[in-house]
Design brief:
The protein is an all-alpha fold and about 375 residues long. It has 2 domains: about 140 residues, Orthogonal Bundle (Cytochrome Bc1 Complex, Chain D, domain 2), CATH 1.10.760; about 140 residues, Orthogonal Bundle (Cytochrome Bc1 Complex, Chain D, domain 2), CATH 1.10.760. Helix content is about 30%, strand content about 0%. The chain is built from 12 helices and 2 strands; from the N terminus they run ααααααααααββαα. The protein has a two-stranded antiparallel ribbon with strand order 1-2. Helix 2 packs across helix 8, helix 4 packs across helix 8 and helix 10 packs across helix 12. The longest helix is centred in the middle third of the chain and has 13 residues. The N and C termini lie far apart (about 50 Å). The structure holds heme C (2 copies). The site of one heme C has 27 residues, from helix 3, helix 4, helix 5 and helix 8. One heme C binds next to helix 11.
């Protein structure tokens, strides 16, 4: 299917007399391009869901104890009030103070070279059109802008050991990443509430020998964080209702935008339940030594400005207008199509998604880090 698509579009676009026709009819049934997002997260076989694991993961996600200087949490850069991202082109990590656009690096210079993506819907990253492919068989399409982490469990330790994001200048005597992670795990072991929570979430006896095993480990830390993140999903949208067959879920203008999105070439890359093929493409000049970046999901898109790997698009309209005159990408749209496409993209939004903040965390440090 992926190989055929460019051909189909080439035929359609050359057969198109003017841009207005773009909106009239879709070239294919919508199910050839999109599917509804599942209503429940997908959990891998080696890290199945449990309520205890999810609850532990949530506390860890908001707890700056995971950072070297105990001032940055995952939530500092993936905050529920900011669409589980940080509303900045680039993130400020260790030593910074404040949240979102107000965050200041305090002259520490710990600024990430790339934009923080949202963690919304990471349970589905890389899911293809076959949404019945749910359960143990699902393997993610890869995480990070360059796909360098295969699973959420693998991803979770990245920011913890990253000097800019969370590690900072504490524990400089530990150079080895694994040793450093052990030191962070030791901190957790010193807090009885965390030990109890890990014991509840993970096995504490060897299944063969029945010898006691330690549940507070780097692996289990990553598993808990991944399990919590998988809960943040945004499947309750009008677009999903429409794809599931409720033809009244979208207005005529929104359907016009959807047809332009398909016929104009956007769905070549923004397809499937996530509106992303999760593949690497070069759509504009890329910073930081990469030549191409992964297609981002367009779900709940209005919650996550600014856009692009370098945050270079401050608004959704700007992010769409980047595609003007891009025959090189086989994208064929006129100025006047942008408003319709924006109207359609807004149907991917919902306010009905998990975005609570814990009232307390076991370390008693500042919840979500130094964000005030
Ligand atoms: C200082 C800000 C910062 C902190 C703290 C931070 N992140 Fe991130 N996060 C980022 C940035 C920037 C990226 C993109 C990095 C890249 O692609 O190279 C990212 C990427 C991710 C992704 C990949 C999303 C995707 O779609 O590929 C996940 C998941 C994630 N972070 C979870 C976490 C977790 C869990 C923690 C805590 C252990 C954390 N982050 C801490 C800034 C941060
Ligand atoms: C060749 C594949 C491809 C095509 C075709 C394509 N996109 Fe993209 N899209 C991408 C990639 C890759 C990025 C990330 C680029 C970056 O970060 O610099 C992106 C980013 C975006 C973003 C920003 C998302 C975010 O969260 O940062 C929006 C919005 C978007 N595209 C909409 C569209 C629209 C509308 C069209 C059709 C006019 C389109 N795309 C066509 C691959 C594509």
């Amino acid at each position: 299917m992926r190989i055929l698509l460019p051909l189909i579009f080439a035929v359609f676009i050359t057969g198109c007399e003017d841009a207005n026709e773009l909106g009239s009819t879709p070239t294919q049934p919508y199910s050839d391009f999109f599917s509804a997002l599942p209503n429940e997260p997908i959990y891998p076989a080696n890290n199945p869901y449990s309520e205890d694991k999810e609850a532990l993961g949530e506390l860890l996600f908001f707890d700056p104890i995971l950072s070297g200087e105990q001032d940055v949490a995952c939530a500092t850069c993936h905050h529920p009030d900011l669409g589980w991202a940080d509303a900045r082109p680039f993130s400020i990590g260790a030593g910074g103070v404040g949240l979102g656009p107000d965050r200041d690096d305090q002259n520490r210079g710990n600024i990430t070279p790339i934009h923080s993506p949202t963690i919304m819907n990471v349970a589905f990253t890389g899911l293809g059109l076959e949404t019945d492919m749910i359960g143990d068989d699902f393997v993610s399409g890869g995480y990070f802008w360059d796909l360098r982490a295969d699973t959420l469990e693998q991803q979770a330790v990245g920011p913890i050991v990253n000097p800019i994001e969370m590690r900072g200048d504490a524990l400089p005597e530990i150079e080895d990443d694994k040793e450093y992670l052990k030191a962070i795990v030791e901190r957790l072991k010193d807090i009885p509430e965390y030990v109890d929570l890990f014991d509840a979430a993970f096995i504490t006896l060897d299944p063969v020998t029945f010898a006691p095993i330690d549940s507070v480990t780097t692996d289990n830390l990553a598993k808990a964080l991944a399990t919590f993140q998988r809960r943040v999903i945004t499947s309750d949208t009008r677009f999903d209702d429409f794809i599931r067959g409720d033809t009244n879920a979208l207005t005529n203008n929104e359907i016009t935008g959807l047809n332009k999105f398909i016929n104009g070439g956007c769905a070549r890359c923004h397809s499937g339940p996530m509106l992303s093929d999760n593949l690497i493409h070069e759509t504009q000049p890329i910073l930081i030594g990469l030549t191409a970046v992964r297609t981002p999901s367009l779900r709940n898109i209005t919650k996550t400005a600014p856009y692009m790997h370098n945050g270079s698009s401050p608004s959704l309209r700007h992010a769409i207008a980047v595609y003007e005159d891009r025959e090189d990408l086989q994208v064929n749209l006129e100025d006047e199509d942008f408003a319709d496409i924006e109207l359609f993209l807004r149907t991917l939004d919902t306010d009905n998604f998990y975005r609570e903040i814990p009232e307390s965390i076991p370390s008693s440090l500042t919840i979500a880090g130094e964000i005030h």
